[in-house]
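Re: beginner question about structure tokens

> Can someone show what the tokenized structure looks like for a real chain? I only ever see the sequence side.

Sure, here's an example I had lying around. Input first:
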Amino acid sequence: MRRLSLSSRLALLFAACTAVVSLFAGVLFNRASEAHFIELDQQQLDGQLIGLRRALQDFQPGQREARLADELSRQADLALRITGSDGQREYDSSTQIPEVLPRQSGLTTVSHEGTEYRVLNAPLYPDKPDSPRLTLLLDITHHQHFLQRMQHLIWLTVGLSALATALFGAWAARSGLRPLRRMSAVARGISAHSLNARLPEAQMPPELAEMAHSFNAMLGRLDDSFQRLSAFSADIAHELRTPLSNLLTHTQVTLTRPRPIEDYREALHSNLEELQWMAQLVNDMLYLAKADHGLLMPRREALELADESDVLLEFFAPLAEDAGVTLSREGHARIEGDRSMLRRALSNLLDNALRFTPAAGSVRLSIVDQPQAVQVSIENTGDGISAELLPRLFDRFYRADPARQEGSSEHAGLGLAITQSIVRAHGGEIRCESDRGWTRFVIELPKGK
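And the corresponding structure tokens:
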């Protein structure tokens, strides 16, 4: 079964609300009209009762009938029955008066042969317990006809108002939902080649402006991710092209003629180095792919960062000594994290710092224990990094060094991207600062509970 559109639902809802309100108002008006007619009938019958009592009390018994006929002739829709104290009928002004009438005092309503009557019972002499009783009957058929016509008018009004509201509601809903159709049109036109399409937020109503903003932000993220993915694919091809070409050329040259076994062994060793670098590159890309899909699940164990840092500094000490670079560490703090992952992140930063620190420079690792987090910074002296390059340092395959070589088997430009993934897997953040001859990488990690 086909589901109703949002415009149809709104139109039906408007029609239902209008019908309910119109019906409620019509019922209230009908009840008010009935109450008003009852009040008018009560006043009329009370006035007639006073006149009839006076007529029956002021004239002799032989003159009562003439006086009553004179009183009743002034109002054709009024009839009278007089009942004695013994319950016997003494007088009927009309033969059409129903045989059985209510006996209780006060105003009541009866129906007889299609005619509606308002009936008022009252004693002729209010101060005498055995007084004859007067029963006045007022024909209210014209009132009922009016109320029936009004009820028909109410139902007609309810139907027409509901229909009109449904039509106008459908038009209003369709007009109001035009921005949604525009969003749908933009969404249908989005493809890998048109991710730059955006919704005009300024033209959206306030209720949809936030949705349009979120939609545009989503498109921006998709566009950015697609551009990064395209660049990533191009970088992979760029990085693998040179070692594959080297392997192919070296192998072809080696096989052009018979050679001593030592030459073949040397060729295999050379090829092994290239293959090891390619394997490491593939492993790094798989590691980053796991990070992108939230599959990096660090183990939580208590770590003393000072001890972990000293182990890494001791490992890099010979390399620093050969380069004439001074290594130092200050501060200490405890956190909960994955030892191997954090060592890899810090090792990448120390390796970068040593490569870009000139002779007689220094590399400093600082640990600051803060109330809510632990801050680890690795800074080195040397040429700074321009401000426009800082946001791209953590991009994959990006190298700020202008002397970048294609397919370098030493550094592929994934170290900082892996470091960032490790830090984020621990719930932290990393940033780079460069100023006044110092370049500083700052890691902020949350403390364990």
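Each token stands for a local structural state, so reading them left to right follows the chain. The first strand starts at residue 78 and ends at 83.
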